[in-house]
Amino acid sequence: MSRIELAKAYSGRQLEEIFFRPIMTGPDATALGIRMMYNMPVPTTINFWKRSGDVLQNYAAGWTGGNKSEKYQKTISLSKVKAEVGYSAEDYFSHVFELITGRADVNLDDLSGTELETAETTLFRDAIAEGIRMTMWLGNAARGGEYSTFDGFVKRLVEDIPAEKGMCAKVYEKPADGAAAEQILAQVWKKAPQQLRAAKSQGQLAFFVTSDVYNLYEEALGESSTEAAYLARQSGREGLFYYGIPVIDLQLDGFKPADLPSSFVLLTDRRNLAMAVNTSDFPGTEVKMWYNPDLMENRQRAIFMAGCDYLLPEMVSIAFQGAEGEFTKTGVTASGGPVSVKFLSGAAAVESVKACGLNASEQAAGAEVSLTLTDGIWGGAVAGSSIAKVRFTVKYGDGTSQAVIR
User: Fold this and answer.
1) Paired residues of 288 in beta bridges
2) pTM of the predicted protein model
3) Could you report the per-residue pLDDT of 72-101, keeping only the tens digit for each?
4) Which of 43, 160, 214, 217 fits as disulfide partner to 249, beta carbons 3.0 to 4.6 Å?
5) β pairing state of 264-269 and 71-76
6) pLDDT digits (tens, 9 = 90+) for 106-157
7) Cβ–Cβ under 8 Å, residues 277 and 24
8) Is the pLDDT assigned to residue 325 strictly greater than 60?
9) Residue 322 clears pLDDT 90, i.e. is over it
10) Cβ–Cβ < 8 Å for 129, 306
């Protein structure tokens, strides 16, 4: 036996019970640290009850309770997506049987169809779960290519910073050591909106951070000479906290898109982030696994709807690394010339870019000009006299500016 040919298809109740519900509920969903919404009515809405004011009143006839508690709602846009994976027959056989024969209670010569089906389902389900997780954070529907089926949390947050005045945001330089990473966490907490800080007692706050910040913060905790720090170096830490708030490593290093910040720290209430998956409210939803004899290939396909969003801007405090880019002044002479900027990360956070010619003493040698964004490149021309360098000024949605001299 060197291939698996039995076709399998899930739809309706089987699709929910066997395939998707294990992803969206239970320990796997809890590990993501956010609200998981499965097969909610479409359009799917997320709700958050704001803390009400004084509900106590003098006893009297009449009803005055119409607006004592305020509920905030936001609709999650769901996109129809599909997942497809193909394996050569030999590779697929090896993958599936490795999942089975690694168990002590299974004999390779006495395998039932149920065990094969479970192994195949696990293989595909894990791939879909990882795709959902990565897109949930780094998705951009306008990007094309990887993780572009729907917009993720980071894009939505970064693009909303100028409009959502209740949101606290800050741009930071790339942390060089543990002290710098700890300082970023401190600033995100200190600058958090009062509504967010007040929710700490409910036990739902969390720092969602990229691996660079997480690893440097862990190093900072190990620099202490206390016995507890020594034991932590020996046995490791199950999880990190900052003044009682969990610090969660999102483990996104496998994909670094040019349009989003490569490093960020997000403090929010876990209930403020929601991921929705729907497999019941539109036709064509299915999961199929079959063998293609013409190409001797095993194929897997899933079709469903997915989307994510955050709810309250006043329950968000975020800091992210400033954009990294290629600042070009080739062709600039003493009297000026063309300049351009192409961002390699964090492009979505950039609000505007300006350029100005400088003399050898780095004093202004001409007027500052605004660059224009065309096909992902900010371009324009500087003019002046005795220009030796060019200063690029990058402005972000939170009002922060970053100067780069070339």
Assistant:
1) 9, 301
2) 0.78
3) 777 888 888 888 888 887 777 777 777 666
4) 214
5) unpaired
6) 655 545 556 677 777 777 888 888 888 889 899 998 888 888 899 999 999 8
7) yes
8) yes
9) no
10) no
Q: Which of 215, 245, 313, 301 is nearest to 33 (CA)?
A: 245
**Whether the Cβ atoms of residue 172 and residue 320 lie closer than 8 Å to each other:** yes
- Cα 36 from Cα 124, distance rounded (Å): 20
**How many whole angstroms separate alpha carbon 131 and alpha carbon 24?**
13
* Residue of 190, 180, 248 lying closest to 214 (CA atoms): 248
**Token pair belonging to 122:** 């696990």
In order, the DSSP letters of 308-353 are EEE--GGGEEEEEEPPEEEEE-TT-BTTEEEEEEEEEE-GGGEEEE
- Check residue 236 and give its pLDDT: 59
Task: Return the DSSP state at 260.
Answer: S
Euclidean distance between the first and final Cα of the chain, in Å?
64
For residues 306 and 77, give the distance between their C-alpha atoms in angstroms, rounded to a whole number: 8
Q: Above 90 in pLDDT, residue 52?
A: no
Instruction: Quote the pLDDT of residue 49.
Output: 60
CA separation for the pair 236, 242 (Å, rounded): 17
Tokens standing for 80?
């129809």
Which of 202-224 are b and which e, b meaning 16 or more Cβ less than 10 Å from the residue's Cβ? eebbbbbbbebbbbbbbebbeee
The residues near 237 (Cβ < 8 Å, ≥ 6 apart) are 218, 221
Q: How far does CA 102 lie from the centroid of its chain?
A: 33
DSSP string, 135-197: HHHH--TTT-STT-SS--HHHHHHHHTTT-TT-EEEEEPPP-SHHHHHHHHHHHHHTS-HHHH
Burial of 181 (C-beta count, 10 Å sphere; 0-12/13-18/19+): buried
List residues bridging with 247 in a β-sheet: 207, 240
Q: Phi and psi of 171, rounded to 5°?
A: -105, 135
- Find where tokens 């030999």 sit: 90
Residue 234 neighbours by CB distance under 10 Å: 6
